[in-house]
Amino acid sequence: MHWIVRGDVDGFFGLALDNLVQLLLIDTLCRFVLGFPPELVYGRVLPGAAVSILVGNVAYAFQARKLAARTGRTDVCALPYGINTVSLFAHVFLVMLPAKALAAKLGAPDPARVAWQAGLLATLSSGIIELALAFVAERVRRITPRAALLSTLAGIALGFISLGFLFRTFARPVVGLTTLGIVMLTYFGRVRFKGRIPGGMVAVGLGTLLSWAIGIAPVGAQPSSAAFHLPVPVVGDLVAAIGGGHLLPYLSVIVAMGLFNVLGSLQNIESAEAAGDSYETRSSLAINGVGSVAAALFGSAFPTTIYIGHPGWKALGARAGYSVLNGAFVTIVCLTGTLAWIAWAIPIDAGMAIVLWIGMVISAQAFQTTPREHAPAVVVGLLPGIGAWGALMAKNGLHAAGLGGPARPFSEALVGEFLKTDTWIHGAFSLEQGFLFTSMLLSAAVVGVIERKWFAAAAWCGVAALLSAAGLMHSYQWTLDDTALKLSPAWPFAIGYAIMSLLFFIARWATEEAGDHG
Questions:
Q1: Rounded to an integer, what distance in angstroms lies between the CA atom of residue 173 and that of residue 186?
Q2: Burial of 70 (0-12, 13-18, 19+ CB in 10 A)
Q3: Angle at the Cα of 68 (from 65 to 71), degrees rounded to 5?
Q4: Residue 475 near residue 492, CB atoms below 8 Å
Q5: What phi and psi, each to the nearest 5 degrees, are found at residue 217?
Q6: DSSP string spanning 383-431?
Q7: pLDDT at residue 319 in the model
Q8: List of residues 6+ apart from 13 with CB closer than 8 A
């Protein structure tokens, strides 16, 4: 199999664009949401991302060539790989932003650096989880219902990805709706523009032109100059993160995201096998884990993953070369500071339709790839993620009204004020803590009920009771301008889940079939 074929060029444009959108998101979220200084973003975070993406892309390219040599085929396509979108948002909004707020509350001299260190630790932990589970991943996949796995991701996709960018689309409709139309045409309609120009490139290109025409671009001040930044190990900051206690407060997010990275990768490996390329699960997940560990060691706070879409790249004719080309492109963009110019010239609005599409596809997949009768379990799994996003919106609304901070801190009194409008905000804040666990466990329990596997349903609820008793779900505390996980038993929830577990356990003896008319 040749290193580069014509289809690799087509595949490169698509995969590179996907990765470029992730890098633009990292640049925007790190600088404008987390308040990272440019020297931290361009000197540490992006070089670390370059290392992780280059390592994984090259490894998956060699893996594809090895499979081609073993099978005697020339049509083997490498697994697509890059920054994990879901983890990107989870690390920003569920790990680093709360860590920064807490550091500011405690009077830390550099809250932004504390937030970055928390992200490094989360990324390192995610990579270690992936490496560890590479040896048992198949067993985990068999135990957990698919509806529980995919609906949890779909809830995050709908709330933290799709709805936020949907608001932005309709806030700037000239760019937003135009690019959304292109994405729908090419990705949902499964057509391409003549000349084999990738639809994503057309969307970003036209979106950029419209952004300049209506005054959305350029974004911020023009960068002074591009600068070369070599990747530098940041072991000292990782040690500081461990000593700073950044693991336990975000354990539910870190463990859940590590698990979902593994399970999402498993689904993509299965998808590749269905397209004709059968890759070994253990080595594929190990490469993924090594990529995330490398990211953390060199400064990136964002884990990597096997991307969805292998059958599409394979259909374009991509083989191994598109993976190497993507790794080289991302490395150049990240190490030379070129991304600063790209971020200045191409506003996030130009590429947000692609991210919105990602959220829609993840959500649709939860229904498309699970048994039809499990649809109620998928809906149940969606709700906690959407609810957690709603809690975030409620707190953002309070901030917009001037609440939060030493002068007007958040407090228990807010619960009563919300109740005056029949808004049960206590439930929303309780649901927000550990919502990834809540989503997966409730959805899995519903699958057990639908299939009348009463003991399995009882076991999932029993796990929920234990996690609630351990303070990893539903237990929250007030901070000056937020709510945060409180590692103390949430006894009302533990008791509630325990009662559910008991009900399902005795259902075999206490119930009978209702029949068609109930």
A1: 19
A2: exposed
A3: 150
A4: no
A5: -105, 155
A6: HHHHHHHHHHHHHHHHHHTT--SSSS---THHHHHHHTTT--HHHHHHH
A7: 93
A8: 198, 200, 201
Q: Look at residues 238, 230, 281, 282 and name the one whose alpha carbon lies nearest to residue 117.
A: 238
Q: What's at 456, amino acid-wise?
A: A
Q: Which of 117, 79, 336 is nearest to 223 (CA)?
A: 336
Give per-10-residue mean pLDDT for the chain (518 aa).
82 80 87 90 95 96 96 94 80 86 85 93 92 83 79 81 88 95 85 78 90 90 79 93 78 73 78 85 93 96 86 82 94 90 85 78 80 95 93 93 90 95 96 89 96 97 96 89 85 98 96 71
Residue 515: the pLDDT is 64
pLDDT at 485: 77
Is the previous residue joined to 218 through a cis bond, with omega within 30 degrees of 0? Answer: yes
Q: Is 77 exposed, middle or buried (0-12, 13-18, 19+ CB in 10 A)?
A: buried
47, amino acid identity: P
- Domain boundaries, given as residue ranges, for the chain: 6-150+233-349, 374-506
